[in-house]
Amino acid sequence: MKKYLPLCFALIFAGFGCSAPEKSTDSKIPALHLEILDSLDLQMLGDPLITSVSESGDSFLFYDFASGDIILTDKDGKVQSQFNKSEDTPDSYEFMVEAPGFVGEDQLAIVGMAGIFLYDKAGNMIKKINHPESLGGGGFMAFPGKSVETIALNGQTYLVTRSLRSRDTYPGEQKYYDTFKHLELVDIEQESSIEIIPFEQNSRFLDGMGYYESDFWPALEANDDKLYLALAGEPTLYRYSLSPEGATLDTLINLTIPGFAGIEGTSRAEFAEGTVMLNGSTSSIQNIHVLGDKLILNYYGGISTEDNEALSKLYDENKMEEAEELYVKLDSQVSRGMLVFDLDSLTFLGNLSLPENADLESFASGGGYLWMQKNRSVEEEEDFLRIYKVKLIEK
After folding, report:
1. What does the domain layout of the chain look like in residue ranges?
2. Cα–Cα distance, 378 to 53 (Å, whole number)
3. Do 346 and 221 contact (CB within 8 A), yes or no?
4. Under a CB-based contact definition with an 8 Å cutoff, are residues 71 and 82 in contact?
5. Torsion of CA 162, 166, 167, 168, to 10 degrees
6. What is this structure's pTM?
7. In what order do the strands lie in the sheet with 364-366?
8. Sorted alphabetically, which keywords does the UniProt record give (predicted)?
């Protein structure tokens, strides 16, 4: 189930080789498939989403949209702690803009409008890091397993989060694209951050059109001193070398993704200051994971521009039931899957379908496995959320 409307407007809050990967016929390329080994059940009503798995695979983080609760469980699904930090309290992150993620095995990080917060497993605030500037607004799109990233540089732990700086501009102006940086590299110890990763020189987002923030919502994974990044609707994989001083582009690969409908730019005249525009039904690379010596990108092929226009018309006419029926129909036809690469060489190894009955939006990783939510039953209410433990098998 998507955690956002197909089309929504979030009001601003006050206050080196380039090549398309081809499937190699080299006999050294392994045959890959996914195998469900086990599962855990989180026993609760509501609308929980798995956001992060600890590196050891022993702890799991969930966010419940119905209550706003953050839930921590062990590998058997037993709740270890459950707390809520969305209320008006000194340790509240206020409006969440990035889902909870683990920092090591014993701390959690959440990015909200009020700042970046570190909590212990019981929900006690350890540290609040202020944003580098006052925020004008922010949107939130949540996928399973997509949360705050951490990376160790020179023996020190940093956070990698989406940048929310306003830069005194908006997507209807050229300045927005010229000055935009996608991410913040946050020094936990110094409680400071630097902005990194602009739109690269040949990015489609520099073509003079306007784009929704969701069009370039970053999918990323930090591993050793490397950062792997893709921008939602742009089928390109970027690899950067990271240091405390910033990021340097190492490699980019143009991707060929079957059924990836692509995105269309929007006239810049349609953008206005004071809004964050998100569309959750267009093509996007949704998440990136490092699993051993493999790099995995999962993608959503998207609903075509023409069908999105038909959907928008129904929503504009307030024909909500018809719009939802059409959306479900179109969404069921969208191509989904995961691209697998060798981590070191970025050699393309295969395009895999996800297990039947798994939530196909995205998934988490940890402990050497992928963790995928089971689709909720549409026929009856379930008082549990099942998480599949999935292994990537080489033949």
Report:
1. 7-40+134-374+382-394
2. 27
3. no
4. yes
5. 170
6. 0.89
7. 32-43, 384-394, 369-373, 364-366
8. Signal
